[in-house]
Amino acid sequence: MPASRARSALLAGTVIALLLGCSGGGGAGGEPTTDRGAAPPVTGPAQSTPTSAPATPSTPRPASLTIAAIGVENLRVIPYEGTTDDTAGTRIQNRGLAAGPYGEQGGVGPGEIGNHLVTAHCLSNGGPLRRLPDLDEGDSVQVGSGGTVYTYEITDTRTTSFRSARSLAEQRAAVPGFPGRRPTQAVITISTCLTLEDDAAGNYWRDDHGNPEHRVDKIGVLSAARQPR
Length: 229
Description:
Elements (H helix, E strand, L loop, with lengths): L6 H8 L15 E3 L30 E5 L4 E10 L5 H7 L4 E5 L11 E6 L20 E6 L2 E14 L3 H8 L8 E3 L2 E8 L1 H6 L13 E13 L3
Parallel strand pairs: 3-4, 5-9
Antiparallel strand pairs: 1-8, 2-3, 2-6, 6-7, 7-10, 9-10
């Protein structure tokens, strides 16, 4: 669902006063299990010859995240074996970077079939994803990794509760929103906390890392992959 970009002005006025940790129905379809492979070659207008990820997922390389619509440029994404907003991921985010969990409880690498998970703070440590709620359907997200730039188109918005095992399973699923379903597309989930929204609703719950209950997740589907000339 589209979000109003007017929210940015509200965040600008309140972000200085809040130094809290944060991180965060998929529009991607699939079929029942969790076998992950490489995304098929994809092309777009005026793109150079696309490339795809290896046939067998390997340890993802560090990546950079660019979201022009909300002013994010070359945010470094550090891959690690784990799951969203765990201790290891929070330590990465506390350095002002984005965390990219992979493995059995995480996601896949950029461009691979399955769910590429990216989390970062919205308020503390520079708040690199403070404007993530403003991202609209149809906006583009670019992830650069290993000499390839992967472009995803935002197709959906989800809210995750870190107090609900089911909600967490839906966020981390290979097909966002559908745990256990076999993925057929390369998708991305970009997540950050909804600290301001939770506080405004009187929900001051925090986890062991100081994160609020709710996260906003922006889901995107791979639309192109190219190697810069």
